[in-house]
Amino acid sequence: MSVTSIKPVPLSEKQSEYMHLIAELMEIRKRGEKPLAFIRTYGCQQNVADSEKIKGMLSLSGFDFTDTPDDADFILFNTCAVREHAEDRVFGNVGALKNLKRRHPQILIALCGCMMEQQHVANRIYNSFPFVGLVFGTHSLHHFPELLYQSLVDGKRVFERGNDDQMLYEGFPVKRDGSFKGWLPIMYGCNNFCTYCIVPYVRGRERSREKDVILKEAHQMISGGFKDITLLGQNVNSYGKTLESPVSFAQLINEIDNIDGDYWLRFMTSHPKDCSKELIDVIANGKHISRHLHLPFQSGSDRILKAMNRHYDRKKYLETIAYAKKKIDGVSLTSDIIVGFPGETYEDFKQTLSLIREVEFTSLFTFIFSPRKGTPAEKLDDPISAEEKSKWFRELLDVQEEIAAKRCSQMVGQTERVLIEGVKEKTGELNARTSGNIIVELDGDPALVGTFQNAKITKARNWILKGELI
To answer: Considering the domain boundaries, does residue 308 fall inside one?
Structure first.
């Protein structure tokens, strides 16, 4: 199947004009010394990266930021549609703003993100939450300032959604949440259409950013002191297919890895069907690339994988894992699993357990199946009770805890290079992370946050390590 190349479009000057107009308007509308915005982000790192763009545009519109909605002039929830639990949290937290809006009518409350690309959600917001004044989807970021200005000036509710997945916009201002850990989107959308997944419907088809644009942004982040950079995409392994001059993900990450500096390079998410030997070889030979491979397998049963429309089987997955173990010294493997997919039997589930035991993952992200409205899996018969699925889920966690404890105990006595990420509030201990994405807790000076250090591993607790600085 041929792929149509998608050329990037720069953010329009018109949006810069709207940012200037918003800044002037907020000088009149602000409640305090300066207009304040409160942003809450749900879901994946791609949503976090989108929120950083929104914060960049709000900064140029005269806003500062607050951690409490009570102080804000503008409140925005950037939403996630992947899990039902995330959607329920959004509805609950938005409902809690009703009294705040009643006390301060000039506050503008907005919702954006993946949930808003679903018509039934937008309808519910419109009918049940009349105090929400602005709603827009993932495809409207490029004219967020225009939508915000329209909401502020007209005082009317603005709702915009639509799947504009033939366009890719560049030139967003970005206000990053961190100073040493950062996200670098390399593509948007997904072409896989797994039967349980809503992402292709709310994020659209794949669009890859130009390699030179990504390299320039990577250079800026590295020269700006970022120590841990994660490349983002719904399926990074299929990067480059929509470019006029196709580039593979292996080629892209190899070029970024060749940039001088002291940093780690990570990526997510990676689809098993597109995980090539070329990519594994690049990781193995990389100077900065993390020795961590997150490769979601979802189920160990070929029958269920076919029903999920995953386009690989158990044998192919295990062959990829075997090659990674052979080539990447000390590779740390993590994965995603769905328990209780419609039609899954206990025999299918046992195949998942046997795969876990065979691979011996460092850690797993595990979920009980949650039907998403509008996906094929929503319509499948699902005879297994929630209670039975919960029993399977507990069994899976017990197996993985045993494996994680074994793997971590094997690291005791080793010296690991770690990145100090923060300080635990309760104990004052430092939180650190290895190249293999394993957490290490240790005593030390909080001034070390944001630096690489060497740590000797002294103790293992399931999937968390204890260490001491060398």
So the answer is: yes
Nearest of 290, 279, 299 to residue 238 by alpha carbon: 279
The predicted-structure confidence for 49-96, as pLDDT tens digits, reads as follows 999 999 999 999 999 999 999 999 999 999 999 888 888 899 999 999
Question: In this model, does residue 171 exceed pLDDT 80?
Answer: yes
Give the pLDDT score at 4.
61
- Taking only the tens place, the pLDDT of each residue in 273-299 is 999 999 999 999 999 999 999 999 999
Query: Do 298 and 366 belong together in one domain?
Result: yes
List the domain range (segments joined by +) for residue 465: 415-469
CATH number at 119 reads 3.40.50.12160
Q: What pLDDT, in 10s, does the model give residues 246-276?
A: 899 999 999 999 999 999 999 998 999 999 9
Structural domain total, the chain: 4
Q: What is the mean pLDDT of the chain?
A: 94
Q: Do 405 and 307 share a structural domain?
A: yes
Distance CA 191, CA 306 (A): 16
What is the rounded distance in angstroms from the CA atom of residue 406 to the CA atom of residue 402? 6
pTM over 0.85, yes/no: yes
Domain match, 153 and 44 both: yes
Asked if residue 2 is part of any domain, the answer here is no
Same structural domain, 242 and 328:
no
**pLDDT value at position 3?**
54
